[in-house]
Amino acid sequence: MTTSPFDTVTVLGTGVLGSQIIFQTAYCGIPVVAYDISDEALDRLPERWEQLKTYYRRDLQATDEQLDAAVARISATSDLAEAVASADLVIEAVPETIAIKKSTYEALSKVAPEHTVFATNSSTLLLSDMVDAVDRPDKFVALHFANNIWVQNTAEIMRHEGTADEVFEQLVQFAEAIGMVPIRVLKEQPGYVLNSLLVPFLNAAAALLVKGVADAPTIDLTWRRATGAPKGPFEIYDIIGMVTPYNLAMARAAESPESAAFAQFLKTNFIDQGKLGRASGEGFYKYDAEGNRLD
């Protein structure tokens, strides 16, 4: 296995993907600090680790000893200065809105050690849109993971024009050290490679739904049967969770009536009811504790 160039890692944000990044990094032997502004979110982490353990046993045949050791490598805090005090790498996985991202980096820049590298897990935003909030542009890079990172193990590494070559290569090495396949993104691109392909597909499905062309199960069935794909778009929405699609739809709401309608649909029918996708047990479909669809 590739050796990590970073001895300690902090992850900002403990949502669906943030918690996966934390657990996978710890599973691969690297101590991780989990940071969230919400103590309530941190209190839910033990339950999240138990859920992820179930997936790792099923998909990776991980042993209880390996999984318990991973959890033992994780600490948690809602104090940002404490979270990053010893961090070699900070991976930011906060909500996908530019204002939240920039305010996070402004606060982070004030408390992180000078040597700490900053990596954003943003799925659509460009580094150059955020770099003016960072005090170390040469140590600022994108590291974007696909969902279910323990099996769909890609990590897109993207630089901006000021990213140091050495930092870019360190992120490639780190991705390999935690079991990812590094995807080198050679030029800044909204959505990188994965979401440049995925987001238009999901948007098209959302438009079909809110315009009343077909319901979600029918759209998913059509895609699976006609293409041989293992999952339809609304099954993918459930894996992603409802919050990120809602934020992305809201960002496009002013220019797209369909995006505005889909954002409202997600808020009313899912987010306000605590149906946040597979991780919560229900989204467009219902799921058991192992993440299997119940229907």
UniProtKB/TrEMBL annotation:
Key words, A-Z: Fatty acid metabolism, Lipid metabolism, NAD, Oxidoreductase
SUPFAM superfamilies: 6-phosphogluconate dehydrogenase C-terminal domain-like, NAD(P)-binding Rossmann-fold domains
Keyword check for Electron transport: no
Pathway assigned to this chain's UniProt record: Lipid metabolism; butanoate metabolism; Lipid metabolism; fatty acid beta-oxidation
Catalyzed chemical reaction(s): a (3S)-3-hydroxyacyl-CoA + NAD(+) = a 3-oxoacyl-CoA + NADH + H(+)
Annotated site (Important for catalytic activity): H144
InterPro entries (alphabetical): 3-OHacyl-CoA_DH (IPR022694), 3-OHacyl-CoA_DH_NAD-bd (IPR006176), 3HC_DH_C (IPR006108), 6-PGluconate_DH-like_C_sf (IPR008927), 6PGD_dom2 (IPR013328), Mito_3-hydroxyacyl-CoA_DH (IPR052242), NAD(P)-bd_dom_sf (IPR036291)
Domain 3-hydroxyacyl-CoA dehydrogenase C-terminal: from-to ranges: 191-287
Pfam families: 3HCDH, 3HCDH_N
GO process annotations (BP): fatty acid beta-oxidation
Domain 3-hydroxyacyl-CoA dehydrogenase NAD binding: start-end pairs: 8-188
GO molecular function annotation: (3S)-3-hydroxyacyl-CoA dehydrogenase (NAD+) activity; NAD+ binding
EC number(s) on file: 1.1.1.35
PANTHER family, per the entry: HYDROXYACYL-COENZYME A DEHYDROGENASE, MITOCHONDRIAL, PTHR43561
Name this protein carries in UniProt: 3-hydroxyacyl-CoA dehydrogenase
Organism of derivation: Gulosibacter macacae
